[in-house]
C-alpha cells in the first residue's frame, strides 16, 4: 500500500493521510445537506438526492484516489447545482428530468474530450504564469467564500460588500475558530486545521450556537425516484435552449475542475516543469464522475477545491481520497451528525487555506506587463464574479490580445487562440 501510493516519495505516513482525508471530508460534507436542499427546490426527491450525492462522491473520489493517486475529493458542484435549479428548472421552466439528462450528456461529452486527450492538451498549453494565477486566484476565491460564510463579509447596497456584524454569535464562533486554528498551525501542530474544526464544533455546541444532533444513526433514503431517470429523457435535450445549457454545464465543469487540479498540483508540489503527472487518469476520473452522478440523480460532479484543506495538513496521495470516500460511506448511516458541521466551523479552514494557496502568485513575473495583466485579471475576477471559470475565461481572453499587441506571436500556443474565441462566444451567448 505504501509503495503503491508513494508514501516514501512524499515522506508521509498513514496518520498524515488519514487526518488529511478527514479534514477534506469535514470541509466538504456540507454538500450532503446543501445539495438535496437546492435540488429539492427543482422538484427532486431530497432523500434520493442525498443518497445520490453520497454515492457519486464515494465513487468519484475512489476512482480519483486509486486511478490517479491524487489527494482530490469529488462531489456535486455547489455552483452548478444552483444553476441547475434556479436558472434551468425554475428560470427556463425545464423539467428536472430533462435538466438531469443535460447533465448526463455534458458528462458523456466531457469523457469523450478527455479520452481523446483534448483536455490534457489544453491544460499543457496554458502558460506557466497563468497556472500560477489560477492557483493563487482560487486561493483568494475560497478565502472570500470563507469570509462570507463566517459573516465577516456581507453584501451592501452601496459598496457591494462590507464588514459584517462581528457581535453575531455565529460570526464570533468563526472568529474563535480562525484564531485557535492559527495558534495550532504556528505551534507546529500537524493537522492543526482539523483540530481547529473539532474545537470550534465543541465550543459551538456548548455555547448553544450549534444545535446538538437529534440522533446519531439515520436510515439511507431510496434512490428509486431519481436513479436512471436521465437516460429516458436524453431525446428531450436536443433543442437550442438545452444545447446552450449543456454547453454551460460542460464549460463551467471543464474549467472549474481543471483550475482545481492545477491549484492542487501546485499546492502539493506535484507539478513539475509545468506538467501535471498522471493528468490523464485524474481528468478521466473527474469526467466520469458526472456521468455516475447523473445516473444516480444529482447535478454535475467535479473535483472540489475544499480538497486543498486536506493538502494543507499534509495529504499528498490518493490514500487520503480513499479516506474521504470512507467517510462519505459512513455519512450514509450517520447523516444526523452532519448537522454539527456548520459554516462557522468550516469557514476558518477556507480562509487559512486560501492564504496558503495565494502564495503561488509570487512565482508570477509581475515586472512583465504582458503576463502580469492577464494573471491579475484571472486572479481578481474569480472572487469578484464568484466563479473560477469566469476568472479563467477573462484572463485567457486577455493573454493572446496583449501578446498580439506586442507582436510576440511565437509565445502564443495555437490552442490559446481557440480558447480566446470560445470564451468570447460563451460570454456573448450566456449574457
UniProtKB/TrEMBL annotation:
Keyword Transferase among UniProt keywords: no
Domain of life the protein comes from: Bacteria
One function term, GO molecular function aspect: purine nucleobase transmembrane transporter activity
Gene Ontology CC annotations of this record: plasma membrane
Spans traversing the lipid bilayer: 12-35, 47-68, 88-111, 132-154, 166-186, 193-210, 242-264, 285-305, 311-334, 373-402, 414-430
Pfam family, one: Xan_ur_permease
Recorded topology in the membrane: Multi-pass membrane protein
Alphabetical keyword list: Cell membrane, Membrane, Transmembrane, Transmembrane helix, Transport
Family, per entry: Belongs to the nucleobase:cation symporter-2 (NCS2) (TC 2.A.40) family. Azg-like subfamily.
Protein name stated in the entry: Xanthine/uracil/vitamin C permease
Places the protein is found: Cell membrane
UniProt xrefs under InterPro entries: Azg-like (IPR045018), Azg-like_bact_archaea (IPR026033), NCS2 (IPR006043)
Native organism: Desulforamulus reducens (strain ATCC BAA-1160 / DSM 100696 / MI-1) (Desulfotomaculum reducens)
